[in-house]
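Task 17 of the worksheet. Students: predict the tertiary structure of the chain below and write it out as structure tokens. Keep your answer in the requested format; marks are given for formatting as well as content.
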Amino acid sequence: MAHPRITGGSHRGRRLKVPPGLGVRPTSDRVKQALFNILGPQVVGARVLDLFAGSGALGLEALSRGASTCLFVERHPRALAALRENLAGLGMEDRGRVLALDVRRSLPALKREGGFKLVLADPPYEKGLVGAALAAAAAALVPGGTLVVEHSPGEPPGEVEGLRLYDQRGYGQTRLSYLQRTV
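Model answer:
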């Protein structure tokens, strides 16, 4: 597997470590670049939440592109090790924090944290976890905040009170859905 890289910002071109096994499917550089081109300047200064963080590729990309902080939520020990190694290797430990917890069990902590302007979610495909990402984002986003969820074509995000789907893009077997918190 080719190692993903940071596609823009202060750490552009830097390669990221990915954990062996676990069926980790890092977001392709092409999809990541498209995602952040669509988000544009709203990343700068944002408090970001990276759900199902894996190696941290999405949150680290946001930090490289000017986000103020990122909270990474991941539960697998090997993924957590790769994520922490990536944070240290990029010198971003002061702006990134790791919550070693299953996203489905993170709602109380995320409600306390709150105040996120941007939530990035990349749940494992076809495991029924898109709903967990939506619930977590609804709990943590500020009104007007954005959720981007990466998912397979067969598992689109459902309706969640307080979130409105405003854009959807396809890249092969990957879909990106952009939702906004309305209340």
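Marker's comment: The mean pLDDT is 92. The CA atoms of residues 55 and 88 lie 12 Å apart.
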